[in-house]
Structure formats: C-alpha cells, structure tokens
Amino acid sequence: MKFLQIIKHLKLQNKKNALDNFVNCRTYEHISNINKLFLNNFSSTKEHSEHGQVKHENFLNNTLQYGENSQNGSTNNLKNGKYNMYVSEGNVNINEEKYKDNNISSNNTQYNNNSSNSGSLNDEGPLWKDHIDDVVNENKKKKMNRFYLDSQATTMIDPRVLDKMLPYMTYIYGNAHSRNHFFGWESEKAVEDARTNLLNLINGKNNKEIIFTSGATESNNLALIGICTYYNKLNKQKNHIITSQIEHKCILQTCRFLQTKGFEVTYLKPDTNGLVKLDDIKNSIKDNTIMASFIFVNNEIGVIQDIENIGNLCKEKNILFHTDASQAAGKVPIDVQKMNIDLMSMSGHKLYGPKGIGALYIKRKKPNIRLNALIHGGGQERGLRSGTLPTHLIVGFGEAAKVCSLEMNRDEKKVRYFFNYVKDYLTKHLDYIVFNGCQINRYYGNMNISFLFVEGESLLMSLNEIALSSGSACTSSTLEPSYVLRSIGISEDIAHTSIRIGFNRFTTFFEVQQLC
C-alpha cells in the first residue's frame, strides 16, 4: 500500500548511520529537505522491484550525501529510553492469520461480541437497519475511495441519531420555552428526554445537572471562568487554578485569559507517558486554590488520566474538580458519582452526534456549586446559558448518548482490535517507530505514532486519500510541533514526525488495511 511504501522508503536502508545523523544533528529544515527529495523521486520513478516497491538507490545515496557532514553519534540514546520511545527494529513476529477470521468484515456490519450489554448494530432504529450499507457505500463513491481515520477531530453522525433528529427539523418545531401551548410542550419534553439520556450515560442524578451549550469549548469556558469569577468575588483570596500542560487549547487559552484578570495558574508537567502524577497535584494545592481541571482522554495521544483518584483528592482537599470529557464521553465508562467529578464538559460531534451542541455537567450537591453566566438574555438553562434551545441538536445529542450507552462495550472492543492490528503490523514491517503516550491507560481509538525520518506533514500531503492528522484539528493549521508531545519529553525533531490515527464505530477493516 502507498502508506507503508512511502514510510519504508523514507526510513533509509542504512538505519544505523542515518539514525546517528538524525539524533545528533537533524533539524526540521533538514528533515523537510530529505522528504521533498524523496517525494520528488517517488513521484517520478517508474521502475519497480520484484516486490512492487519503488527503487530508491538514488534517493538513498543523495540523502546520505546530504548528511555526510553530520557529527558522529550513536543509537544508544534512542534504545535506552532517553527519548521516551517504543523502538522497533522490525524483528517482532506476529501471526497475521489471527486477524483474518475475527468477524470484522469490510462492510462494518458483522463485528460481534458476546457482551449482553453492548447492544447490536441492527437493533436500534429503522434508518440504521435499512440504510447503513448504503451510507458506507455511498460515502465511498462520493469520496472516491477516500478513507476517514481522523476520529478525534469529529465523527460521522450515527444514522439512528439522524433518524431521531429529522422530525425536529421539520414538523416538530416549537420553542422549548413556549410554555402555553402543545408545540412548546412537545419540544420541552424532547429536550428533557435528551438530558435524561446524557445523565444515564455518565450516572448523573438530576436533570438540572445538565446545561446545554454550543460545544465543549463553550462548556470549558463556562466552567473555568464561571467558577473562578464567582468564588473570587466571594473571597478575593481564592484565585488559584491547577491544570496540566497537555490540556486542550481551549482550557489553556482560558487559563491564560484568567491570568490576565489576576488569577494564578499552575500548569503541571506530565510524566513521559502523558500522565499527571497525583503527588504533583497534591503538592500544588494551596489555601487559595479554587479548582483543578484535567482532561479525561487526551485529544492528541489518547491517554486516560487517573480521574477517579484526582477526584478523590480534590474532594479531600475541598476544591472543585472539572474535567474536559469531550474525547471520553460515550467512548469510555464515566461515573461522575464514583469519580467525584464536580463539573464535566461534553461535545455532541465527538460521540456520533451533531456539531454545534455540547453540555456542561454541574453536580447538584450541598453546598451548591455556583458559577457566573457568560451569556445573558432570556434566562434559559437555569440562567447559565441564555438563548433559544436548538431542539433538533439537543435531541440528536441525547440520542447519540443513548446509542453510546448501548454500543460502548462493542465500540471499545472494535477500536482496540484495530489499534492492536495496526500496531502489530507496523512494528513488524517498519524500523524505528514510536508509539506516543501510555500504551495501557488509554483510549484505543486514538493512535499517535512518530515515524523517524518521515516529516509528518509531508506524509499527510502525500496521502490525500487517507484522512489522518498531525495533531489536534483545532491547532493543526500551524506547523509548530505538538505542544503535547513536547510536554511529555519528545524532542522537537521527532515531534515533527508524528501523525494521529483515529478509529471509530464506523471504521471498516478495509479502511484499516489501507494503512498496512
């Protein structure tokens, strides 16, 4: 396949010498020049070897000549873990037969498991039963065999969700806050049913705990700014927030905004696996600390933080705990009671729902959690988020949460299978690859890989038929290396070689095979 072929040819046959050059003196500009040199060769070369691979002797010679003035070095730093890498030298043996008979067909409808709680792909909604094959096949036709593996950026709307939304986009159009007639009552009931579905997904207790917003970015802003400004007004001494260096940009930027207003923010550095240490959090809590905010599942490297123990610590120290669960809700089990989560942000389009809708969970407890509103007007959403409710989006969000409650176990088994399949295959066939982030405490629908000698943007541009990402979709417009990877100890050069692969409920085995 083109993906593997390009990577193989960018690796350089003389791994030892090239690696010495790379580790000791390669710069981003140098890597880019190497890749441009190769891609030109790759596009123009018509000769193929017996195995169908493009001959690359000229590229190899030119590349080695380009780096012949490099300082001498060694691969020891790479192998001894200095760069926090999983290093593969292509010597892992796997049994590829085990992946062939696993009830995962290319049309995505035959994947099964025996869990009684995992639901069925064919048991919810007439649109799903009738049209899922058409959806997949029509998508392939329209996209000209382009394949979507960027599931952390967004997900396809589930056909069952669309089926539920359509009436509220056509003949059920009342304003949910019109309390004097049937049209309003009908919409209001639909909104409350959606709240209930979201509560069931996260084990919330009261419909008043869910505040609908336009998305996770607004939810995060409301949580941090709303909480901090309210409690700081009550007690001017309360002005300290704790977070990490690997949060989503909307958390980091909101914290920086609060710093301009006189608040103090502690940004904790994670370990090389991407996990924030509990002792670091504990040592950062002060008398003036208002709250701590830590992402549940990291959007770039897929690492799952120890949310339950963080929640327990915050409860013990009597500070509020917020988590950004936009990449976690509907994908990994969440119990806001057991985990002692006070506030939690969620996003509709990250769990197979519509874009433009999100929610902030605010626990009902004594004393009540108070926060200031960011948007003022008609007093909707308990006065915390004024504006006419988008009933159709809320209905879709609620239905997506309901479907995730049914399908979560099966979705997790599926993405874990794809993760292991791709990891085993790439480890066997490629040299010197890095699997970033903790490989155990993670969501397996997110795979972040560094391919040494392969600049990530060059690889993505040459693979326009496969949708991948070099980082967060919210920040990928910049060519700066990932701040998440830099924070966990990855060098700038190696961070530039990273790509993110995202698997989801609708990913087919055929699509995954395009990577192998």
UniProtKB/TrEMBL annotation:
GO biological process: iron-sulfur cluster assembly
Gene3D superfamilies, alphabetized: Aspartate Aminotransferase, domain 1, Type I PLP-dependent aspartate aminotransferase-like (Major domain)
Enzyme Commission number(s) of this protein: 2.8.1.7
Compositional bias of kind Low complexity: 102-122
GO cellular component: cytosol; mitochondrion
GO molecular function: cysteine desulfurase activity; iron-sulfur cluster binding; metal ion binding
Domain Aminotransferase class V: 148-515
Keywords: Iron, Iron-sulfur, Metal-binding, Pyridoxal phosphate, Transferase
PROSITE patterns named among the record's database cross-references: AA_TRANSFER_CLASS_5
Domain of life of the native organism: Eukaryota
Keyword Protease in record: no
Annotated region (Disordered), positions in chain: 102-125
Pfam annotation, one family: Aminotran_5
Keyword Protein transport belongs to the record: no
Root EC class: transferase
Cofactor(s) needed by this chain: pyridoxal 5'-phosphate
Family: Belongs to the class-V pyridoxal-phosphate-dependent aminotransferase family. NifS/IscS subfamily.
Protein name as it appears in the record: cysteine desulfurase
